[in-house]
Amino acid sequence: MKPIYPAVKAVIVKDGKFLALKKKGVEGEVFELPGGRMNYGETHGEALFREVYEETKLQVQPFILYDTWEFFHEEYQITGVIYLVEMPEEGEIVLSDEHEEYRFFSLEKDSLQMMDIVFASRMERWDMEAIKGFMRK
Predict the structure, then answer these.
(1) Which of 74, 83, 119, 126 has the fewest CB atoms within 10 Å of its CB?
(2) CB count in 10 Å sphere of residue 132
(3) Domain containing 31 — which CATH number?
(4) Which residues form the Nudix hydrolase domain (predicted)?
(5) Burial of 34 (0-12, 13-18, 19+ CB in 10 A)
(6) How far apart are CA 115 and CA 89, in angstroms?
(7) Is 79 left (phi over 0), alpha (psi -120 to 50) or beta?
(8) Shortest CA distance to 21 belongs to which of 127, 96, 123, 120?
(9) What is the model's pTM?
(10) Contact between 73 and 63 (Cβ < 8 Å)
């Protein structure tokens, strides 16, 4: 039986835009959401805090569970959840060694063309205006 790994990702929102990261060694302009695999014994919130901090040095807290995602590889499967998160008022983004760039993309469907297809295929179904409105409250 092939393994299934649980994972968490964050849509970190600031001023109507979301944070995306580009991994080193990935061809082209392909970005992904911050986050990663959970460790045994971690809650979603703990894993999200740890992963986002490891990748960006930002200290975030899950705001709302928003969606799920799957990635199928011939050797394993990743099943994950996506949280909406507000950008912390304090702290500066410092990328980990596994990433080479970060960008803030507008919460618009047109921005998704630079996202990894795993996430873009989920995000294109989202109500971006509702997310913008909800994150302003």
Answers:
(1) 74
(2) 16
(3) 3.90.79.10
(4) 3-129
(5) buried
(6) 25
(7) beta
(8) 96
(9) 0.90
(10) no
Dist CA 51 CA 59 (whole Å):
10
| pLDDT tens, residue by residue, 27-77 | 888 999 999 999 999 999 999 999 999 999 999 977 889 999 999 999 999
State both tokens at 35.
């986050």
The residue segments making up the domain with residue 21 are 4-136
| Enclosing H/E stretch for 65 | strand 64-72
Q: Which is it for the CA torsion 108, 109, 115, 121, positive or negative?
A: positive
CA dihedral 6, 119, 32, 39 (to 10 degrees): -10
d(CA 8, CA 68): 9
Q: Which residue type sits at 97? A: D
